[in-house]
Automatic annotation (TrEMBL):
<keyword id="KW-0812">Transmembrane</keyword>
<keyword id="KW-1133">Transmembrane helix</keyword>
<feature type="domain" description="DUF2231">
    <location>
        <begin position="4"/>
        <end position="134"/>
    </location>
</feature>
<dbReference type="InterPro" id="IPR019251">
    <property type="entry name" value="DUF2231_TM"/>
</dbReference>
<feature type="transmembrane region" description="Helical">
    <location>
        <begin position="12"/>
        <end position="30"/>
    </location>
</feature>
<keyword id="KW-0472">Membrane</keyword>
<feature type="transmembrane region" description="Helical">
    <location>
        <begin position="37"/>
        <end position="55"/>
    </location>
</feature>
<dbReference type="Pfam" id="PF09990">
    <property type="entry name" value="DUF2231"/>
</dbReference>
<protein>
    <recommendedName>
        <fullName>DUF2231 domain-containing protein</fullName>
    </recommendedName>
</protein>
<feature type="transmembrane region" description="Helical">
    <location>
        <begin position="81"/>
        <end position="100"/>
    </location>
</feature>
<feature type="transmembrane region" description="Helical">
    <location>
        <begin position="107"/>
        <end position="126"/>
    </location>
</feature>
Length: 135
């Protein structure tokens, strides 16, 4: 909390934008190899922002229950899918590092596939968070 305002809603938008943009960069780096480093940096920055957003969610649970009447199950589902997306993007990041070092295109393709899965998980986590606030 910062002056009574929960930080979580303020922090979540950075990893969403960065990680989805990193997924696009991975896709375009299949054709333009020079984008791989930019994708790697964007993915790393998005992961750091995602960890900050994830950790800030703990302090927001009571606020969500009292202000939005969010159920414990809804909060836990949102939290789990956010964690699953971070794990997926972490795996994508590791695969991209291996690709960067070995230059095997198959690792880049696997990194992209895992990032697309992570994007779906991230979108669903965001959807669950939005349902708690706007439903």
């Amino acid at each position: 909390m910062l002056f009574g305002v929960p930080l979580h809603p303020l922090l979540v938008h950075a990893p969403i934008g960065l990680l989805l943009f990193a997924t696009l960069l991975l896709f375009f780096s299949l054709k333009w190899v020079q984008l791989k480093l930019f994708a790697l940096i964007t993915l790393f920055t998005g992961l750091l922002a995602g960890v900050a957003a994830y950790l800030s969610g703990d302090e927001t649970k009571d606020y969500a229950r009292s202000t939005f009447n969010a159920t414990r199950a809804a909060i836990e589902d949102h939290e789990h899918f956010a964690l699953y997306s971070l794990i997926a993007f972490g795996i994508s990041f590791v695969l991209l590092i291996f690709n960067y070092r070995s230059n095997k295109k198959m690792l880049l393709i696997f990194s992209l596939i895992v990032a697309v899965i992570g994007s779906g998980l991230l979108a669903y986590a965001g959807h669950l968070g939005g349902q708690m606030v706007y439903k």
